[in-house]
Amino acid sequence: MSLRTESVARKASAPAESSGVAAPETPYPAPTYAWYVVGVLMLAYTISFIDRQILNLLVGPIKRDLAISDTEMSLLAGMAFALFYTFLGLPIGRLVDKRSRRGIIAIGIVVWSIFTAACGLAGKFWHLFLARIGVGVGEAALSPAAYSLVADYFPPHRMGTAMGVYNMGIFVGSGLAYIFGGLVIGLVSGAEMQTLPIVGEVYAWQVVFFAVGMPGVLVALLLYTVREPLRRGIKAVRQADGSLKAEDVPVREVFGYIRSNAAAVLCHNVGFALLALVGYGVATWLPSFFIRVHGWTPSEIGLAFGVVQLTAGVAGVIGGGWLGDVLKARGHADGRIRVGILAAFAGVPFSIAMPFAGDGNTALALSIGSVIFYTMCFGAAPAAIAEIMPNQMRGQASAVYLFIVNLIGLGLGPTAVALATDFVFQDEAKVGYSLALIAGIALPLSGAILLAGCRPYRRSLERLKAYTA
User: Which residue in 4, 14, 36, 319 has a CA-CA distance of 20 to 30 Å to 339?
Assistant: First the structure.
């Protein structure tokens, strides 16, 4: 290459980087730093799930002290959180495609941490309901921005594994929430009330929310060690000086593109959402199943199921992302969708058999298989949606995916189990039957929908190549 050609190349690439748009030949960031970024994002996700899931281990004392039913408790665990978490994800997704993703996440962490601590001030059902809405508002900022960042830090053949490591935060956070919550309950269970500085007398379970909420603010500071990467796979125009400028994509074009890929997007979103429905139902009600049916204490099931989440959950989410990468490398364009199909059908026998086990240890062993399979979707699904969308639309498409998966999975999963317990079996001790019923319906339906989406998904991959050419 001549000196003049090198000079022109440098002039063309410098403005491209300053504008935040990567030229096709721009190398990806160093792998070591990229994995550090995933580690920070995974830590944020871990904290978010501790704050989100700690409620599930406090069902008994909250029901007692606030005098509420299983159905009302399910609304606190699911709908109160999911309502604003899902709806606010859509405008936040738009911001993710145009503004600093790092800043969006940092603000979200501060908001959800403050509202988690506010749950410890609740004296009535509606107080706790509103505080849970605030937790959902803050957490809505995390995943759309994180998915977009990961997709720009890693090449396509490693994106599934990276997404799996990020989503590992779901199960590390859930596991720690169960373990930590169980230990705290064990420590404070001897007293009905605790006295805290400034706040005064509170119930023992309220102490747990204070303990897990406020440390999250410190995690927000770590986000300022994360650099905004150049945006890749973006529809851009080259200007007269050789720099690249991202085209401004209006909202109508984003949703027009999604509509043109409606079959692939709908099958993907709904199919994976039904897997998530089973997962959130199990996460919410399995501790109560062991307490009510097998006589375990909250501390015992907190430790046991926390270990299951930390081992089987982590193995499933990373394994799902890795398997999607492997299938892609072997020529299966729809490899990430195939991971979901495998997870849905293979999880059926474990999920149905678990509540009918004769003793608690056997039920816990069966839960390991159930957890491994339904968690596989959390590594494969976000990589799959990022893979078929242009960069300028990834945040918004991820927000639509999260909207559906959380509305169905998080919003309906815990409530579906509770409704079956309250109105079908009409016995709190039969919550295990409710878990088996919901899994037996949702998992085969998930597999069938994802299977129907394989061909449309392959067509969407071809459509993306034409759009970004």
Answer: 36
